[in-house]
Amino acid sequence: MTEAPRDGALLDRPVVISCGEPAGIGPEVAARAWMALAGEIPMLWLGDPRHLPADVPHRIVTDAAEAAGVSSDALPVLAHDFGPAMTPGAARPEHAQGVIDMIALGVGMVRDGRACALCTAPIHKKALKDGAGFAYPGHTEYLAALAGVSQVVMMLASDQLRVVPATIHIALSEVPLALTPDSLRRTIEITHAGLRDLFGIAAPRLAIAGLNPHAGEGGAMGREELDWIAPLIAGMRSAGFDLTGPLPADTMFHAAARTRYDAAVAMYHDQALIPIKTLDFDRGVNVTLGLPFVRTSPDHGTAFDIAGKGLANPTSMIEAIRLAHRMARGTA
Fold it and tell me: Residue 205 above 90 pLDDT?
């Protein structure tokens, strides 16, 4: 799935980290992640060095090729001037275009092989819309547009669970209309390919949740399972996919059930995110499958309320960088 070859030279190239919203915790958790991973994984931060914590050493570089030689001693930074000073917890519209530009720069660096993977710090969508007319619902949709792909899949991954929501940021009332046989089939196909190509699972096992309580209970609580979800799963199983379902969502995330699959496909946002955030809140990583490059992100937002106070937990960013590096090797 990645455009650059997975060879030894590629793995010497850094995981590039886009700065995200400067007034949030993104710069802080990126800097703390470097402190945890220095010497283990080469990385390169894209942004304004003024936004980094003062107690974390950084070094300005002019090219990604310099990052591996610097990363053990200081956080390598490809500097971009964001203009007006940043105040923690208060997004500035003047910074919006810089945030967008750093994402696009990171994508370009991974696609042309200067970096092995992209890890994106959290953005503040309203700040980007107000400051730069950002027209996308979020990071994922913008990355898909940059890559020229029509559908991508959001996976939340940790050591405890990998789960994919088939629909994401829409109202619950809209889910039955947005969820179609074609969209679910494509979600399953992209998830299967990602597990195979990026996670090194030769024959992925996928568990598919039902849409309705108790997976419809034979039509008593909804007919989508009977009318098209079960037939779709049966057809894909006949085509060689290792699928189980549709399963009642309330019984597919306990410890014994999780041993029977490599990833779960849920039907809507909360059905997917509640179990992983309950099981492994700090270590969950947001992964985008279906892109022609590796992209991960910490599974949290900008956290304006604690920005600049030294309280942010860098664990999810650390795990996101580690996972990105492993995915670049195809062994996540």
Answer: yes
